[in-house]
Amino acid sequence: MVKKIRVLVVDDSALVRSLLSEIVNRQMDMECVGVANDPLMAREMIRELSPDVITLDIEMPRMDGLDFLARLMRLRPTPVVMISTLTEHGAEATMRALELGAVDFVSKPRIGVVDGLSDLSDQIVEKVRVAAKANVRRAATVSPSDGAVLRERVSVIPPTVATRNSFSTEKLVFIGASTGGTEAIKEILIRLPADFPAVLVTQHMPPGFTKTFAARLNGLSKLAVQEAVNGERLLPGHAYIAPGGLQFRVDRSGANYLAVVEDGEPVNRHKPSVEVLFKSAAKIAGRNAYGVLLTGMGNDGAKALREMKDAGSYNYVQDEASCIVFGMPREAILQGAADEVLPPAEIAQALISRVKASPDRYRV
């Protein structure tokens, strides 16, 4: 008999609690072992029931969901899927929850909750399944003042690395990630100097959240981080985030690399898809590309990373110990696409050294 995933639902709305528990209980491989209307009740139920996964609302009485998440991850790290509201404030809070260690999130509608959550049921149960297998230990050490700490920690870069115009303008770095990727991407970008070549990022994320994600990274990184804009020239010292719900790839016009952002079909069920970005890297950038595939479920980007390698790129893949979910990196390794397998912070340092040492190798 297959062991069921034990889920605790924490939400101040009786309707949402009922809907989520019903969605969970319809699955053959999971069960809702309890519901709580606030974090204090949830705390007692966690001790009693030892759930495998918690779904957690952000705005709740008696204790804010983020405060509860921070305490949970410090004292009893448990996989958490956030149930957030798709608003600007909700997006900010969701990004903070991911920093604190939440595995993933689902954005619930503000109106039409019954139909909205029913439409999201497949997504909800898929994210619960992924969370049940996630390595949350790596996310249990984030401090509330992490922004200031990160800036101080990475601000001292050797002069030989951070000198202006020390990097080639022909190089491009391509990063792909899914579950757990927001923190892994941050760990890389905060370590790159201000004159680093352009970085293109596809993180699996729905519309409404990538702009907030880019803004948070921009506040931490020496690079200028923004959502990618169709037709925009890709410049050194900048990082470009694929907008949620759209496909993102690179093209070339004369001496310039350009961003292409378009409403294409989902690839590997994703929009944006890492596969789309990496395939364009192989075709357009060739040996001037560096590929990075980070934590995530599934195989999106793995085959295309191998295409990048065959076209002459040098590729980094996140190691299992530092991954929240090792699915995408594992697939890339099996494809023979990885030149080095490292944790994110070491990937950043390796990129700096290798990009500086490598000459321009653009080929038409």
Automatic annotation (TrEMBL):
Xref: PROSITE patterns: CHEB, RESPONSE_REGULATORY
InterPro entries for this protein: CheB-like, CheB_C, CheY-like_superfamily, Sig_transdc_resp-reg_Me-estase, Sig_transdc_resp-reg_receiver
Domain Response regulatory: from-to ranges: 6-123
Pfam families given in the database record: CheB_methylest, Response_reg
Modified residues (4-aspartylphosphate): D57
GO biological process: chemotaxis
Post-translational modification: Phosphorylated by CheA. Phosphorylation of the N-terminal regulatory domain activates the methylesterase activity.
Protein source organism: Rhodoferax fermentans
Reactions catalysed according to its record: [protein]-L-glutamate 5-O-methyl ester + H2O = L-glutamyl-[protein] + methanol + H(+); L-glutaminyl-[protein] + H2O = L-glutamyl-[protein] + NH4(+)
Lineage, top ranks: Bacteria, Pseudomonadati, Pseudomonadota, Betaproteobacteria, Burkholderiales
Main location: cytoplasm
GO CC annotations, alphabetized: cytoplasm
Protein localization: Cytoplasm
Domain CheB-type methylesterase intervals: 166-358
Gene3D superfamilies the record matches: 3.40.50.2300, Methylesterase CheB, C-terminal domain
Name of the featured protein: Protein-glutamate methylesterase/protein-glutamine glutaminase
The family this protein is said to belong to: Belongs to the CheB family.
Active-site residue numbers: S178, H204, D300
Keywords attached to this entry: Chemotaxis, Cytoplasm, Hydrolase, Phosphoprotein
Comment text on domains: Contains a C-terminal catalytic domain, and an N-terminal region which modulates catalytic activity.
Stated role: Involved in chemotaxis. Part of a chemotaxis signal transduction system that modulates chemotaxis in response to various stimuli. Catalyzes the demethylation of specific methylglutamate residues introduced into the chemoreceptors (methyl-accepting chemotaxis proteins or MCP) by CheR. Also mediates the irreversible deamidation of specific glutamine residues to glutamic acid.
CDD domains reported for this sequence: CheB_Rec, REC_CheB-like
Top enzyme category: hydrolase
HAMAP family, per the entry: CheB_chemtxs
Example of a GO MF term: protein-glutamine glutaminase activity
